[in-house]
Every structure is written in structure tokens, then in C-alpha cells.
Amino acid sequence: xSESESETVGGAADDRPLKVMVVDDHPMWRDAVARDLxxxxxxxxxxxxxxxxxxxxxxxxxxxVLVLDLNLPGMPGVRVCRELVGENPALRxxxxxxxxxxxxxxxxxxxxxxxxxxxxxSTEELVDAxxxxxxxxxxxxxxxxxLVLGEYRRLATDPLPAAPDEPxxxxxxxxxxxxxxxxxxxxSYKQIAERLVISHRTVQNHVQNTLGKLQLHNRVELVRxxxxxGLDEA
Length: 234
Description:
The chain is an alpha/beta fold.
């Protein structure tokens, strides 16, 4: 059994329950999702029904995973995501939305969401998605992952021009470069760990180190960086 599989469904890597917060403007739906996740072993630290409330409560409760609807009063979900992830890059955001519109999916990911799940997903799919999101794996309703990876590639065809006095790119280790190449190919952290015969936590550490060296903020920026440099074709 792999390292990630040996954890309990609701457990974090340090054996404490994962802290989860649910944000949705429909009280009955929000409460039902919170109950399902609590029953699966997650620590439900807060819920919220609008954008500003979500930002305040997430800042106070410090969840590991934010389960976030996009259509919120007061502040759209993408802005909530952008603000919270900007303040705390370690926060994982799983969008749970009724919309399957491509523009909504791409905007959510660009704002820092790790995954995007449709509200038609089963309870089992939601529980698994929260666990995988907490681990840093990109999680999407079937059919949406290819859309996101295709957008990465489209963006990479028109990279931003370098400033005249742009400093030399930071030096990555061979292992960091190898992990970055596999991230750019769309592999999950679990798949990368299995491919390189290292632990899931080691993959996460390499990704965080690479983000720091490159002064990037999330996986979206990291993949674009890699594709622009042709690492996905290596």
C-alpha cells in the first residue's frame, strides 16, 4: 500500500483530521455537503454562505481544503479563491459547482483552485476529491482535465516577453527539473511518486521548493513555466 493510500480518508499526513470548510449560498446544500464530509472523518471547521463571509471565516479557521461554489453573493467564488490562495498558497481549493462551462473551469484554475468537481458528483467522489485535493493532486470531473491542460499549452504559445534586464533563471536540481517535467505532462503527485519511486510527500516538497525558487504561486503558473520551456516535450 502506498503512503497516500495508508492514510485514513479524512486524515492528513500528520494523522490529524483534515480541516475542511464548505462555502455555498444554498443553506440546505451547504449543510448536506458539510454533513457528508464530517461523516467521512473530516474536521468541518466552518461554513459560509457568501463571498466576504467566506474570506473572513477561512482566514480565522485556516482550513486545509476549501470546498467552494463559484456563484456567491457579495463576492464571486473566483475572487474568494484568488484572495485566500494569494494570502496562503498552502490552502487547497476544490470548486464544487453546478456549472460545467469551460470559461468557469479555466477561471477557477487560474485563480488558484486545485480541482473542479460538478455538483452531480456522488458523495464517494466528493470525499475522494477532497482527500486528493488536500494532497495537492489536480482533481477534475471527467472531461475537464484535458480542457485545463490544453489551456496551459495554448497560453504557452504566447509567453510574456522578458524584461531587458531580467535576472538569470534560478538553478533547479536535477530532481526538481524531473518532477517539474512530469507536472507539465499532467501527472498527479501520486503518479509522479510512483514513476520516480519516491514518497508523495517528497514530490510535494520538490514542487514547493521549485515554486519558491521560481517565485511562482501555484500549479497553474508552474505548468505554464514548464511548457514555455519545452519541458513537457522532454
